[in-house]
Amino acid sequence: MTRRVLVTGADGYLGLRTVQRLLAETDDRLVLSVRAADRTELADKKSRLERETGTTAHRRVEVVPADLTEDAPLAGVATDLACIVHAAARTNFDIGRDTARRVNADATARVAEFAAACPRLDRFLFLSTLVSVGCRTGDIAETVTEGDVEHANHYEWSKEQAERRLAERFAHLPWSIARLSTIVADDDTGRVTQYNAFHNTLKMLFYGLLSLMPGLPDTPLYLATAEFTARGIVRLTRPETVGGVYHLAPSPDEAVPLGDVMNTVFDIFERDPAFVRRRLLRPEFCDLGTFAFMVDATRGLGASPAAGALRSVAPFSEQMFRPKRFDNSRLRASWPDAPAASGLPLVAATCATLVGTRWGRNPAPNGVTPDAVPQ
């Protein structure tokens, strides 16, 4: 049966890949909401979406403008929807608290209010993040977080606030929350077309701007590809999938220790002649207090590369000292044929791409140059 599905943030990195998967794997008709300041920007985004989704798909796709920070942003969208995928968000770790609240928490509530007016709705899927659980450690269940939670940055806090609002104010909706892991590449080839804190940290290490690495060597990292994540999102949109929280991430035994990631990264770095000529040592792990002292000490250096490198890592550094085991048994039950995580081979492939293209400044071997696609 053909369903009508709304995807917010459809022109973002993950939103677009979700749209492509929905078009490839379902007969759904899609309403794609994008933020556009004027008609010219809307026309540009429509053209790009048409190119990216393929010419044969345009009859199944409707593109609508929506600023989710405004009141009733989806008032012009018909309410005969079966599913809403809320992918729109600001995902940078250094986001300010007020912006994070407006764009990530308040906007999610507005989309949920619209969802409540859709009588045929059978799934409201909110894309969150594993670190919405904040600085908790140990075993993390696929449930909404309860009690007071300390967060390392405002991004994490805003996603946790959005989750709580769904659970507390919109319990009557058929909601699901997909907590996503860190996306490091488009697919298992290591192709990179969207940069985040993971890639930027490796860049700082490659150019010798970080001599100390905050974190515990045994802290597990949950790394995934956009392909894996988009496939999982599409699975969770299906009406037969039970609602609730899902850790859309590798299983705990597939997570990779931070120390192993660093060793793999430097094994790749040391194959590059220019890196070898710089005679850089592998960074030592440091405790959180030492790293915080270094960040504070560089504040007077202004826009120097070293100061910028430390400040770019600081917003998420505390998580490197907070090891977690994310249970994903609910995900595996709903997606029994989910592909296994690639682990360190994915890290190696991604790092090789970054070094080979110099973080996008040079064309990739397949002729594709990474571009900056907003999330």
Automatic annotation (TrEMBL):
This is Thioester reductase (TE) domain-containing protein. It comes from the Bacteria. The lineage of its organism: Bacteria, Bacillati, Actinomycetota, Actinomycetes, Micromonosporales. Residues 7-230 form the Thioester reductase (TE) domain. Transmembrane segments: none annotated. InterPro entries: FAR_NAD-bd, Lipid_A_modif_metabolic_enz, NAD(P)-bd_dom_sf. Pfam families: NAD_binding_4.
